[in-house]
Each structure stands twice: as C-alpha cells, then as structure tokens.
Write a structure and sequence with these properties.
Blueprint: H1 8-18, E1 46-51, E2 67-70, H2 101-109, E3 115-116, E4 119-122, H3 129-146, E5 151-155
Parallel strand pairs: 1-3, 1-4, 1-5
Antiparallel strand pairs: 2-4
Length: about 160
C-alpha cells in the first residue's frame, strides 16, 4: 500500500524557503507544558472545545480572528476551505470528526461528563506562536476561567 500522507514538516520547510525567508519555519517548543491533571472526576467537569476551523466563510485568510460560539447552537458545519490539511486523505464533511460537540453532548447525557461550557472557541491558524501565546490563548483562558471550564478539548485541523 502506498503512503500518501503529507510530509508536513518537510513541506513547511520547503514552503518557507520558496517564499524567501532567511530561516526555516520553527515549530513551537516549550520546556514547561501548561497541562495539569484533573482535580475532580470527569463526571463533575465543565468542558469546552477549541478548534482551528472558523465559524463560516466570511472568515477568509485575511479576516481570521479568535471567535466564540455558543455551545447551545450547534453549527451544521465550520469553515475549513482555506486551511491546510490533507484533503486527499480525509474530508470535513463530518462535523463530529473535527468538532465533536454532539459526542460531548452525549457524554453529558450519559453522565460521563459534567456539562458543556457556554462557549466554544475558533482559533485562527495564523502560524504565529506570538499571536497565539500573547493574544488568543490569554483571551481563551480568561473566558474559560469566567465559565469555570475544567477541560478544553483542542481539535486542530
């Protein structure tokens, strides 16, 4: 069987070189990881979703910014057309494959998860560690603290 997977790291290096950048793309690296174990059972936790898909097609490449959506209003789809993902190996026709809000709702009904937060988050793929670290992540953290979120499911496309 032939491997048709995208060689993401090599492709990114070649892209940056072709664009004339002096340095190759540098992936985020953190000596300290800001994750921690749960302090209470999952059945008592409030959960949210953070995705790199955008709410709709008005958020084209130039207009992407951090967006919040309401968990009570499950979208039919999210905008993924201008994002870089292996379109030969997969698709985004199935919302649950990259935004599992229906599955999380089932887990709440089954008693396996406490509840869903009021909001979910769409984070732009700006390829900027600084943008994410200094602007988007602090805004999401502030909102999650205000909503008493215990668990954030990060779903990158």
């Amino acid at each position: 069987m032939r491997d048709n997977s995208v060689e993401y790291m090599q492709r990114s290096r070649l892209y940056y070189k072709a664009q004339g950048y002096a340095r190759s793309y540098r992936w985020a690296h953190h000596k300290e990881v800001p994750f921690s174990p749960l302090e209470k059972p999952l059945q008592e936790c409030v959960a949210t979703i953070i995705t790199t898909a955008m709410p709709n097609d008005s958020f084209t490449r130039e207009l992407r910014s951090l967006q919040m959506g309401e968990m009570k209003q499950i979208p039919n789809s999210l905008y993924t057309d201008e994002l870089a993902w292996d379109m030969d190996a997969t698709h985004t026709d199935d919302l649950d494959s990259y935004f599992p809000i229906r599955r999380l709702t089932e887990k709440v009904k089954d008693g396996q998860l406490g509840q869903l937060a009021e909001h979910y988050y769409c984070v732009p793929t700006s390829y900027s560690q600084r943008q994410t670290r200094e602007f988007d992540a602090p805004e999401i953290l502030k909102s999650c603290i205000e909503e008493d979120v215990d668990v954030a499911l990060l779903v990158g496309l």
